[in-house]
Amino acid sequence: MTADVLIVGAGPAGIGVAAALRRIGVEATVLDRFRVGASFRHWPEDMRLITPSFTGNQFGLVDLNAVTPDTSPALSLLEEHPTGAQYADYLEMVAELEDLDVRTGVEVTDVTAGAEDDLLAHTTDGAAWPARTVVWAAGELQYPRTNGFPGAERCVPTVGIERWDSHPGDDVVIIGGYESGIDAAVHLVRRGRRVTVLDRDRPWEVVDADPSRTLSPYTHGRLREAHETGQLQLLGDVAVSAVTPAGTHGYVVHTACGESFGADGPPLLATGFDGSLELVRDRFKFDEHGRVVVTEEADESTVLPGLFLAGPSLAHREAIFCFVYKFRQRFGVVARGVGRRLDRDIEPLEALREPGFLLDDLSCCDDCAC
């Protein structure tokens, strides 16, 4: 049987788009290789959302981490900065409230054109799920970047740490100084470790109106606290050239300028994410900066019609939609595009405009500070 909509990924983007589609009577089938919110359940125990949750929905100020206009992680979890596990619990709650059709244990590896105008979602077990439309919402966090220099495979991605206490050694080197790198540094310093953070740039010094380009105030506050201990060293303008083993359990991080830094445990990688789009790279166009190109009116692939994109990989006019409160603004846009393809009445989606789930005027993004 051909589904009207298959959504790949049961994270905030997949659950949010599925909930938006229910407003126009479209029941999407959500596919995930693990379970709802699985990426968040893989976070280190003490890692928390940097975006604050606050209950302001009844005053027209939707919780920044909410994926529907009428729910609030702050209210359901009673946490301002939820842990990954807590946020996954919230997503499961939304899936239950919306009575979404979520199929777990299904890993989609590609989407191709099928018969007539249908699409096929291919899975690891050799099956091909037919659908009239597909929304790719598989996210990024389960696909950390683990290459870039010789010896990168000897490092451990920060999102792969289960508990900070379990990371070996007293001297830790972290490669990458943006949010996940500084978060790791803060937690390790609190546990008495000596930490060196290396970065090509100096993200801890950047001040920008767009929070996607600078550390959050939540992170800056914790960074100051860690720096005051004297156990944290931040080094910018440093390009890592290789990581080599040293002794029984040690490692040396080599840099392009000839300096080297020793660590008595595997260095930590905080160098970003390849993202799930690598799985379907040929189904989308990318610009000269490596950013995905989709239609502005529906976030639809310009290569494979009927394939839509939702989530943190989305970008338009140099605006980065990598936080929940950013990419959720396009849930209504994607739902509207799907609805039009299915010949559904899309008028009910207009109710998503005021609470910030249907942003289709991107003129603000010419000089975006969202």
Features:
single chain, 370 residues, alpha/beta, FAD/NAD(P)-binding domain, seven-stranded mixed beta sheet, five-stranded parallel beta sheet, 8 helices, 19 strands
Break the fold down into its secondary structure elements and pairings.
Elements: E1 3-8, H1 12-22, E2 29-32, H2 38-41, H3 73-77, H4 84-97, E3 101-104, E4 108-113, E5 119-123, E6 128-136, E7 156-157, E8 171-175, H5 179-190, E9 194-198, H6 217-227, E10 232-235, E11 240-246, E12 250-255, E13 260-263, E14 268-269, E15 285-286, E16 292-293, E17 307-309, E18 315-316, E19 319-320, H7 324-327, H8 331-341
Parallel strand pairs: 1-2, 1-6, 2-3, 6-17, 7-14, 8-9, 8-14, 9-10
Antiparallel strand pairs: 4-5, 5-6, 11-12, 12-13, 15-16, 18-19
Helix pairs in contact: 1-8, 5-6
Cα gyration radius (Å): 21 Å
Count of distinct structural domains = 2
State the separation between the terminal residues, measured CA to CA. Answer: 41 Å
Gross morphology: globular
Q: Determine the structural class based on helices, strands and strand pairing.
A: alpha/beta
Runs in which pLDDT lies below 50 for 5 or more consecutive residues are none
CATH topology grouping of the largest domain? FAD/NAD(P)-binding domain
The H-level CATH homologous superfamily of the largest domain, spelled out, is FAD/NAD(P)-binding domain
Q: Return the CATH architecture of the largest domain.
A: 3-Layer(bba) Sandwich
Number of distinct helices:
8
Write down the CATH class of the largest domain. Alpha Beta
User: What percent of residues are in strands?
Assistant: 15-25%
User: How would you sum up the major sheet?
Assistant: 7 strands, mixed
Average pLDDT over all residues = 91
What is the succession of H and E elements?
Answer: EHEHHHEEEEEEHEHEEEEEEEEEEHH
The number of E-state strands comes to 19
Helix content: 10-25%
